[in-house]
Every structure is written in C-alpha cells, then in structure tokens.
Specification:
The protein has a single domain (6-248), classed as Gcn5-related N-acetyltransferase (GNAT) (Aminopeptidase, 3-Layer(aba) Sandwich), CATH 3.40.630.30. The protein has six helices and nine strands, in the order βββαββαβαβαββαα. It has helices spanning 51-68, 110-122, 142-159, 174-181, 206-216, 236-248, and strands at 25-26, 36-39, 44-47, 82-89, 92-101, 127-135, 164-169, 184-192, 197-205. Strands 1, 2, 3, 4, 5, 6, 7, 8 and 9 form a nine-stranded mixed sheet that branches. Helix 3 (142-159) packs across helix 6 (236-248). It starts with 24 loop residues before the first strand and ends with a helix.
C-alpha cells in the first residue's frame, strides 16, 4: 500500500537537518549504497541494487508503513522484474520506490485487481506498477520526490517500453495521486491483504505522462498555477540524456 508523502503537500523545499534524525535511515558506511544515477546539490538518486541498499530501503518502508498501520515486515528483495530506487542525502535514505515490471508472474496488483489490469493487457498494453513508495515526512521537498518518480518513469518508458502504470493506494491518499501525477481511479475499492487495508487501483498512461513532461518538465522555477509534480521533473532534453546514459550501462 502506498502512503502519501505528506510532507510534500506544501511548497516548502527545505528542511532543517536536525528534523531528519527520527525518521531517516542511515546507509551502512562500510557498504556500497548502490549506483548513483542522478546527483543534485543536496541529494542523489540511486539504484538500490546491493544488499545494503535494499536493507536500508526496507527499513524506511517498514518505519513509514508501520506508522500508517500497514505492517512493518515488508522486504525489498532482489528480483529481475523489480527495480528499487532510493533518494539519499549525506548517506541517509530519505525516500524509496520500486518499479514492478509485468512478467509471467504478473505484478503485485494482480492479487486483487487482476480483472482490471487484464483489460489493459488485452488491448496490447505493457503494464508496470509503482510499489513500496515511502518518503520521510520531515523532508519537505517536491524536487526529491519528483526526481525519484521521474527516474522510475525513465526506467519504465525507455528500458521496458511500458505503456500503462498502476499504483494501489489507500482511499485517503487517492486525491493526492490524481492531482499531483494525473492518475485516475479504476474500479471500486477493495481490501488489500498485503497491508490489511482498503485500496483503490489507480492508472495513468505513459502517453499522458510524456505529454506532461514535454509541457512542464524543468519549469519548477516558474510553474505558474500548476499544482502537479511535473514542473519538478527533468526537462525532456535532460530526460533523454539520462535515459541514454542508463541504457549504455546495461
């Protein structure tokens, strides 16, 4: 179950370092955290492809999910059909998200929304999902969250050619994803046994995401009245440059 990153609902883009200590998970100093694929002034986006990186991402997930009542025994495991990303600041994990790619085993959302997801597959769509999104609530930065999600979308679009993106969310978080990323609700609310809580299935087409990146990406200094996260995404030129670098590393 995805939790709303409550701290990024306002426009504050800074946070006092002292406020981070109770929530942020430290990376093990003697273990590699994972490859840095985007470096900004005050944070980095990494692929959590090491045991240490996955463990630290899992610690943040369990801390935040446990606080929301979604359980605290969730694991981030090595899986060829999943890519876990982490945002780090001075060696601390401040956010994490996992991209799940469709395979013969399906995606996690198939457990309770298989009928809805199968409709997209039937019309030729290649589906993927956003899972295990956890974000430290004291980090008031739309830029960090948007960067984490944009790198996930770059993997989904350029590496795996996904056409449709799904996410399962608690009903109280649904409006956030609709407003900030353009997701729409598919079907009715159902009980999610993985977190013992109700969930909606939300969907956004990659065509829509790309349109928003073309229109708004890289405009965070002058977003106008736009309320979504898309102004905090990379510009299309920057996106293509990063995608090309990622593809060369395969």
């Amino acid at each position: 179950m995805e939790q709303i990153p409550a701290a990024v609902q306002d426009d504050a883009l800074t946070v006092k370092p002292s406020a981070l200590q109770s929530h942020i998970v430290c990376m093990e100093p003697d273990s590699p955290a994972g490859e840095v694929i985007m470096q900004q002034d005050h944070f980095a986006i990494r692929v959590a492809d090491t045991e240490s990186g996955r463990s630290s991402a899992g610690m943040l997930i369990n801390k935040m999910y446990g606080w929301r009542g979604y359980g605290d025994n969730h694991k981030v495991e090595s899986n060829p059909n999943r890519i876990t990303l982490s945002a780090t600041d001075k060696g601390m994990v401040i956010g994490t998200v996992t991209l799940g790619i469709d395979s013969e085993a399906g995606i996690l959302a198939d457990e309770i929304f298989h009928d809805e997801i199968q409709k997209v597959r039937a019309r030729g769509g290649k589906v993927c999902e956003v899972t295990k999104l956890a974000f430290d609530p004291t980090v008031r930065s739309k830029m960090v969250l948007a960067s984490l999600l944009h790198v996930l979308i770059i993997h989904a679009h350029y590496r795996f050619h996904c056409t449709d993106l799904f996410i399962e969310v608690n009903p109280r978080h649904r409006r956030y994803y609709e407003t900030m990323l353009g997701f729409t609700t598919v079907g009715e609310v159902r009980q999610n046994p993985r977190v013992d809580a109700p969930a909606y299935l939300l969907h956004v087409g990659m065509d829509y995401v790309n349109q928003q990146i073309d229109r708004l990406g890289g405009t965070s200094t002058h977003p106008g009245k736009e309320r979504s996260l898309y102004p905090f995404f990379l510009s299309r030129r920057e996106e293509v440059g990063l995608a090309n670098r990622l593809l060369k590393l395969e």
